[in-house]
């Protein structure tokens, strides 16, 4: 089996550490910093256009609350069993969404990003793919709440595949296995089963038997880093699991999420500075040490909020024999 020479760097929502996520400036920054792939989360507008937002509820990532003309669009919906109040992309046409501007989602941790609030519109998936094409990088879209969007007559699969048919390389990711199984019937593009850090269904997926089942419809797994290196009391890391080895034995690539620079998002072992400092949570920790550990464990790719850091660690680490890595492959076109 062929294997890739080194792990891929995936710009998580672009370069979320440096620009408001899911904006063209964020994706452009990720590309400039050496990302192999840029990652848009995809939701639908009322007129069935795919746009890049972390969620279909957009009060935390846009200035929609400051638009009085849209005040009556605020509502409560149940999305995947959870009641959420706010403004939702499926209640806006693309033209209406274009009047909004992106804002930083976590300004307390990333105050520098707030300087870019109000500058960038919500990009369409077409625009993200066109940007990737111009710069020769891959795209790594995630379908958000595909079952929900299908239930309201706005399925994500058709417009997704229509746009992706014009681009390479690609990974398509989803937390929903049913969505991936449907995509497998319709496309040979590489598919990634996302696996959360907790939950009985995900616990089953990371067993050798579960991985074999995933291999029947997907080409890899995208897992929380805690599935590769769990944490114990106080956030200290424990012995790594056998997940990377087990997944490789099943013929699956392993991409881990999400490496972030801030102490608040790093394992306790890699935090730096005085915990009593008001700036401790947002201070940059030993992210290079954390990345090196993950790379040394044989992961095939890393989702990084600062893809420049992930690229720099790859460039600087000593060359050593690496674990055999299966490569996600295009399968035969569905009949």
- In this structure, how is the largest beta sheet organized? 8 strands, parallel
Distance between the termini: 25 Å
Structural class: alpha/beta
Proportion of strand residues? 15-25%
CATH class: Alpha Beta
Mean pLDDT: 94
Helix content, binned percent = 25-40%
Tell how many strands the DSSP assignment holds. 13
Q: CATH topology, what is it called?
A: TIM Barrel
Oligomer: single chain
Strand order in the largest sheet? 7-2-1-13-12-11-10-9
CATH architecture verdict: Alpha-Beta Barrel
CATH superfamily: Phosphatidylinositol (PI) phosphodiesterase
Shape: globular
- Give the count of structural domains: 1
Order of helices and strands: EHEEEEEHHEEHHEHEHHEHEHEH
Features:
globular; eight-stranded parallel beta sheet; alpha/beta; TIM Barrel; 335 residues
Please describe what this structure looks like:
The protein is α/β, with parallel strands linked by helices. It has a single domain, classed as Phosphatidylinositol (PI) phosphodiesterase (TIM Barrel, Alpha-Beta Barrel). The chain is 26% helix and 15% strand. It is built from eleven helices and 13 strands. It has helices at residues 24-32, 94-97, 125-135, 146-151, 157-164, 177-186, 200-205, 208-214, 243-249, 287-296, 307-316, and strands spanning 8-11, 37-38, 41-44, 50-52, 75-79, 82-86, 138-139, 142-143, 172-174, 191-195, 220-224, 253-259, 301-304. It has an eight-stranded parallel beta sheet with strand order 7-2-1-13-12-11-10-9. A three-stranded mixed beta sheet has the order 4-3-8, covered by helices on one side. Helix 10 (287-296) crosses helix 11. The radius of gyration is 19 Å and the shape is globular. The mean pLDDT is 94.
